[in-house]
Amino acid sequence: MDAYDGLAPLYDHWAEHMTEDVPFYVALARGAAAGPVVELAVGTGRVAVEIARATGRHVIGVDLSPGMLEVARAKAAAAGVEALVELRLGDMRDLGRGPLALDAPAALVISPFRSLLHLRGWEEKAALFRAVAATLAPGGRFAWNAFVFDPHIAASNDGYAARHGRLWEYIEHAPADSRIDLTVYAGAPGVEPRTVQLWWATRSEWEGLVAAAGLEIEALYGWFDGRPYDDRSSEMVFVARKPL
Ligand SMILES: C[S@@+](CC[C@H](N)C(=O)[O-])C[C@H]1O[C@@H](n2cnc3c(N)ncnc32)[C@H](O)[C@@H]1O
Fold first, then answer.
1. CB neighbours of 77 closer than 8 A, spacing ≥ 6?
2. Alpha helices per DSSP H over 98-161
């Protein structure tokens, strides 16, 4: 079972602190040319449902976890946008192939909330970036965000158990593998802890992935309010573009 399947009923509670990204991705969708919007690793539809509701656009959401997609389906129905939010079960690295083939080139591809960090190392991320480039219409955009690796934060949160409401989160760092293991526990009898793994990447790795896929960087922000990326930034918010 995918680690996120067990987290699906808890995910929105766990992610409730993350709200400022939604208007950022909605604005990109609103300004995009004609064509579908694709969210890679759509999860419970936290962003996709809001894009459909706010813009009336067709959003294709891809995710590996049937449990997360089930929650997304219910949220789309509750928001009255089930006809706009098309949810597809699959691995984002298969974008453009088989069940993840698109009928029309995408106007915008997004991957919010650090989801690309679930792809291990350069090779897996590079395959994804190539697939995104092949899927985008000329002039189409690819936007994602990822945390900035900070050795001070890593040192302080390795082995750290934090509480988020009724959830417990336990963090372990594996620096030799550029990896963080995040274990989430609901603190309820019969609910097993779930561990998800994140492989961080540096600014220059992201820039290399963009260039190697034939895309170009349009913007790198330090947060979703568009502030410049600098030494104080804890998040990288990238917008790349497929050349015309
Ligand atoms: C942190 S959640 C983000 C969900 C959503 N994008 C959001 O912003 O709330 C990460 C999601 O990535 C999905 N995921 C992980 N690896 C994946 C892969 N290779 N292909 C598709 N989805 C994947 C998980 O199932 C999970 O739903």
1. none
2. 121-135, 151-157
Q: How far is CA 188 from CA 6, 7, 129, 131, in A?
A: 13, 13, 39, 40
Location of structure tokens 């949220």: 75
Strands (DSSP E) along the chain, which ranges? 37-40, 59-63, 85-89, 106-111, 136-147, 160-164, 167-174, 179-185, 194-199, 216-221, 235-241
- Find out whether the beta carbon of 64 lies less than 6 Å from any atom of ligand 1: yes
For residues 145 and 110, give the distance between their C-alpha atoms in angstroms, rounded to a whole number. 9
Strand pairing report for 136-147 and 106-111: parallel
CA of 150 to the centre of ligand 1 (A): 23
Sheet hosting strand 160-164, strand order edge to edge:
160-164, 167-174, 179-185, 194-199
3-state SS class at 57: coil
User: Which residues in the chain land under pLDDT 50?
Assistant: none
Q: What domains appear along the chain, each with residue ranges and CATH number?
A: 3-147+201-241 (3.40.50.150), 151-196 (no CATH)
Residue entry with tokens 């029309």: 104
Whether residue 63 has its Cβ less than 6 Å from ligand 1? yes
pLDDT in tens, 146-182: 999 988 888 888 888 878 777 788 999 999 999 999 9
Q: % helix / strand / coil in the chain, to the nearest 5?
A: 35, 30, 35
